[in-house]
Amino acid sequence: MAFNDEQIKVIKAFCGTLIAKLDDLETEALLKTKANVIKKHPSKVLKFSKFDLSENEDFIKIFTDKLVKCFPRDKLVQINLIFNFFAKSSTSLLLTGYFKPFYELDRKQREFVLQKWSKGFKFYRNIFSALTILFNVIYWTSFDKYFETIGYPGPDPEANGEKFTSKINSFPNYEFIQVPPEGLELQFDVVVIGSGAGGGVVSAQLAKAGYNVLVIEKGKYYHQNELSLKQAESLDNLYESNGFLFNEDKTMYILSASTFGGGTTINYSASLKLPHYVRKEWAAQGLTYFLSDEFNESIEAVEKRMGVSSDAIIHNENNKILIEGCKKFGYHCGNIPQNTAGYHHQCGWCTFGCKYGEKQGSLMTWLRDARDAGAKFIDNCYVENILIKNRKAVGVKAIVNGNRALIIHSKKVIVSCGAIHSPALLRRSGLKNKNIGKNLYLHPLTMVTGFFPDKEINPYSGSIMTSVSDAVENVDGDNYGAKIETSTFHPLFLVTFLPWRSALNHKQRMLQINHFSSMLIISRDKIPGKITIDSNGRPRIHYSISNHDSKSIVEGIIAGLNIHVAAGAKTVMTPQFAIEEFEPAEKDPFNDPRYKKYIEKVREIGVEENASSIGSAHQMGTW
């Protein structure tokens, strides 16, 4: 779907609003921003102040190509329609308050419109959230022109050094069945659809038991040699929808793997056991296995194979701030075991694949075991449907590389392609059970950010997630709440979870990236969503955060603020669009009436739909 000239003018106008050329007063303010890079590169910062994204023709092409590549046709039609509305005076009036096309407004008028949307009704917040995330994420992941200016190194500087080359011979290699243009038909005992945490384990166990196993993966395999650790390339290669997956109403940004090894390839090394209170809850519903010795033994076996322990943890600055803040405020805090087999895994780029093979995901463990036991593999393979005969699964019909037919006959079919794609596959295969796709849990998350002008935190470096606070994990008395952890903070995540407030504020915050500490608020959701499929069989994610779960997130945000303030943050920021940044008092900040009023406002505003930046990195399951 192409964009016409008027729509391109609208796109350029948004570019020139979100990442805009600053006027002289704004430039003066930018040069006074508290950040070490200002002193290091004053001339580059001055040049950055005059940068106008609307003048970057390469970005316009990448942006429009990305929209076409990442979104289904019906969503593209909606995007196209929105841009048309902005291009016409009559409909632009309804959206902006001005009787002229959006691109005819001056920069200050456009900025005012966006600021008004961020605090407006849900419809306007939807537009604000979707467009600010799309434009900023695509720019800051696709272009490195100002990386040196803001102090961000881009890909891991050690990626091709001794840390990598010294381990290169320990990385497993995988061979994949090649399907010819005319197609292929094969026979196996068991077909495993999905190569992640579930598919990896089951394929290894079955192959070692003597079964003839085939593992099918929708995404592609990338050897450690092929991992660039670049943001845009990693999103394109390793993530579902090229890193631009949203729920249906665009209120949640969802990061989900689509690569060999599944979520274990892109997730951090954190390896927390299933809490006992969850096991008790499930057992009370009839699933008594979760309180059995057999389940305990299975967990121990998995931990052993994945090298899970806390012995090799080295906390980065981000985790040190979490620990310090918790201790000073009186919150619980503890270490998170890591699946690193004893390695000091100090890699902040692991969300783009583990270049050093230290994270013991499926690629390094279960799939390797399956390979050694004789299992076969096919990647870039989309299973259209399961073959069913006499109410029994007897194989799969698939497409490889987008156009090559594959038929697999098998005695067993194991569906382990994640909470989003498993129900979609079952629906495409004609199964009618009304529960398929229901009870979708996504662990809604957000971030709280603290600014430490006197510290070089470099929040994208070092071990990502090695500490956790359970201070608010039981908000409702039924063990539903939120965990507070740390995250890597590449530009991708900064522009997603720090709301855009103005062109000046955006550039200031980018210059301060090395002074930010990010706390990840991950909730245990009680009220689920569901998966349906569209006319093409693609999964659609229907999920809204309930009032119950919103409270868990808000209490997590407040705890994250307390932790940052206790640790000495000079400014704290929430993901809420209507909450301004706050500077705590130097002395006794928690008894400051301003802070108490600020916390009251954070709780009052809450996280209603598209009033905050909300994401998901854990697609927990569906029925």
TrEMBL record:
Statement: the UniProt record of this protein carries the keyword Lipid metabolism: no
Keyword Flavoprotein set for record: yes
Recorded GO MF terms: flavin adenine dinucleotide binding; long-chain-alcohol oxidase activity
Active-site residues, as the UniProt record annotates them: H618 (proton acceptor)
The enzyme's E.C. designation: 1.1.3.20
Reaction equations catalysed: a long-chain primary fatty alcohol + O2 = a long-chain fatty aldehyde + H2O2
Pfam families, sorted: FAD_binding_2, GMC_oxred_N
Domain named FAD-dependent oxidoreductase 2 FAD-binding: residues: 189-221
Keywords (A to Z) from UniProt: FAD, Flavoprotein, Oxidoreductase
Domain Glucose-methanol-choline oxidoreductase N-terminal as annotated: residue spans: 236-444
Family: Belongs to the GMC oxidoreductase family.
Protein name: Long-chain-alcohol oxidase
Organism: Dentiscutata erythropus
